[in-house]
Amino acid sequence: MKLARRKAQTPDGPVTRIIAADRDGTWFDIRTGLRRHLLRGGASQDAAERIAAATVPAGLSAALAGGAAFTDVVARVLDERPGEAAVQDPVLANALDPVSYRDFMVFEEHFSFGYRWQNKAVPDIMYELPISYAGDPLSFLGPDDVIPWPGYTQRLDYELELGIVIGKAGTGLTPDTALDHVLGLTILNDVSARDIQAREMTGGLGPSKGKHFACVTGPVITTLDELPGDGLGMRARVNGETWCETTSAQMVWSVAELVAWASQGELLRPGALLGSGTCNGGSTVEIDKKLAPGDRIALEIDHLGALDNTLGEPGPEPWWPPVRERAADGTASQLRFLR
Amino acid sequence: MKLARRKAQTPDGPVTRIIAADRDGTWFDIRTGLRRHLLRGGASQDAAERIAAATVPAGLSAALAGGAAFTDVVARVLDERPGEAAVQDPVLANALDPVSYRDFMVFEEHFSFGYRWQNKAVPDIMYELPISYAGDPLSFLGPDDVIPWPGYTQRLDYELELGIVIGKAGTGLTPDTALDHVLGLTILNDVSARDIQAREMTGGLGPSKGKHFACVTGPVITTLDELPGDGLGMRARVNGETWCETTSAQMVWSVAELVAWASQGELLRPGALLGSGTCNGGSTVEIDKKLAPGDRIALEIDHLGALDNTLGEPGPEPWWPPVRERAADGTASQLRFLR
Questions:
Q1: Is residue A102 less than 8 Å (CB to CB) from chain B?
Q2: CA of B194 vs chain A CAs: smallest distance (Å)
Q3: Which residues, numbered 195 to 214 in chain A, qualify as contacts with chain B under a Cβ-Cβ cut-off of 8 Å?
């Protein structure tokens, strides 16, 4: 099964509607399918619309939070295949509005390069635990959206990653149980501002401003039962030229291990997004290329489709924090509170 | 003004209700106050309840997202002081259910110690830019909640911080405009698992498992107009013993600068929470103390109240990722995908 969200027009502006497709590729609008089912069961128009809107809201995370109340409806619509709910050539929004976003770093070539790029040796921790940072779940874009270019960066970059979508709440999972909590996989572009990221990482926190301004997922989420277990081909194209061609089968930690580790001592919620980190060769830093405003980034993963975005024009000159004056002992000359 | 949320019982279990108090300290239930106002304007019971619930939802972030539709109601209720909406001795929930959470590190004694603790010199970036990491907005607890002790840590710790609550959306702010977007300040306990945090930070990302399992805010949010501009006394007590006594007036970057920097290239949303980082002496690592299950942590900040929590019993033994075997060249001997 594939899950996505389409854009639909209403008198109050555009809305997103959850759609699903079986292996044959026909998309069905799930809320429409449920409303039709409720009407056939004797519901009034008002009641059918009210129940359908509550069960199949605009957000996929909110829908998944309904548990079987949502997943049973999806399964039934794909089984009944109601013509009224079929959608031709949907315009896709971002498939997932994640409730949280944690990005790991499990592709060896990429992280080895990354540490060398920071003049550091690869630390042992990379082979001891999957490490991660949290991103901003509110800054997600979808297919064909323009990626904003913050005024504070000269070096905007894409990162081609696997996105792991949690479908069912879980905590204290093991690799044997973890995949039961995964709805499916999607393409993830963890957009990065390399210059500010490199500076932030000298402090050992984050990254933060280097990452939080934008992230892209989609176009669809493909459930695990439709995916081969031995790896997916991954490609990045910039303005039509192939800049990366690799496979997902080169992870130091598996999808099941990442989910299991993320769930220790925490509740993974439906709609949580875990990123794999950049695949080998999956950003411009390690291939010594640079992006420019207007560049077209196309990320493809077998069975997950293609995620296309254009880079926007640089934003306005930002306010930069003034560098602090320091006393002879290296400490700040002046301390502050509100202003 | 102070804003908080109280716990109320219903036939369907406990709910949270937004309350506010003026300088005299009397709390008013804002939804009740609005419902009463609507009834006096001729609304039916049903309509008054429906409009009041939509305008003053259970979550403070959702309420703040209404803009003036919410803040005007709060101001009117505190002006009208309706007896029906007055609340005696409310049982407080976490004041804020943040939409996002970013924690800075701006207290010099704490970060200097932190770097030394990691055998590192204080990097120049600490005086060039405010750096930060993102935490999990879904793991927030409130006053009197038991702080979970993950099974993967031997070294649980508190961090006494200022929490900065965004009240009005903003992007591209400067220190001159930033404070207009701040609703107020609250106490923040950025709970930390020191052993796993220290290991994660050798990789330069995050921290993640060292932080995301829990965070505490509350008990109230005090608006800036009620706060002195020259600093707030901050204290931490463990089992009644004072372990930290300091002031908020020792920040390398001011509240206004943190908000302005956070807003560059990003939309800060109502309900976003920014942390100051640990105040000087505000965690156990730099005072060479250790916490144990059952310890009572009381964090106090002048004008913001006291935030009391007890540490829970250690959780179950976690699943630990097996350390990866490595070939002679240091790379992983086996790579993976799903399992």
A1: yes
A2: 14
A3: 199-209, 212-213
Pairing of strands A100-104, A272-275: parallel
pLDDT digits (tens, 9 = 90+) for A89-116: 999 999 999 999 999 999 999 999 988 8
Written as one letter, the residue type at B127 is Y
Q: Where are the domains of chain A?
A: 2-87, 100-314
Q: Do B318 and A172 touch (CB under 8 A)?
A: yes
- pLDDT tier at A270 (50, 70, 90 boundaries)? very high
Q: Please give the sequence-ordered ranges of beta strands (E in DSSP) within A97-214, or none if there are none.
A: 100-104, 132-134, 140-141, 146-149, 156-157, 160-166, 182-189, 192-193
Residues in contact with A329: Cβ distance below 8 Å, sequence separation at least 6, in sequence order: none
Residue-wise pLDDT for A56-78, tens only, equals 999 999 999 999 999 999 999 99
Q: Which CATH architecture has domain A100-314?
A: Alpha-Beta Complex (3.90)
Q: B274: which 2 tokens?
A: 């920014």
Closest CA to B5 of B21, B14, B18, B15: B18
Q: Which of B144, B191, B159 is nearest to B309 (CA)?
A: B144
Residue A160 has pLDDT above 90, yes or no: yes
* A253 strand-pairing partners: none
Contact at CB, A265 and B213, closer than 8 angstroms? yes
- CA B78 to chain centroid, in Å, comes to 25
Tell whether the torsion through CA atoms of B52, B58, B59 and B62 is positive or negative. Answer: negative
Contact A336 B200 (CB under 8 A): no
Q: Which residues of B touch A133 (CB under 8 A)?
A: 133-134, 205-206, 208
Q: How many angstroms from the chain centroid is the CA of residue A23?
A: 23
CA dihedral A52→A57→A58→A61, nearest 10 degrees, is -150
The pTM of the full predicted model, rounded to 2 decimals, is 0.97
- Is the pLDDT at B299 greater than 90? The verdict is yes
Token couple for A41: 């069961």
3-state helix/strand/coil string of B17-77: EEEEECCCCCEEEHHHHHHHHHHHCCCCHHHHHHHHHHHCCCCHHHHHCCCHHHHHHHHHH
Question: Tens digits of per-residue pLDDT, B58-70?
Answer: 999 999 999 999 9
Residue A120 has pLDDT above 90, yes or no: no
Angle CA A312–A313–A317, to nearest 5: 130
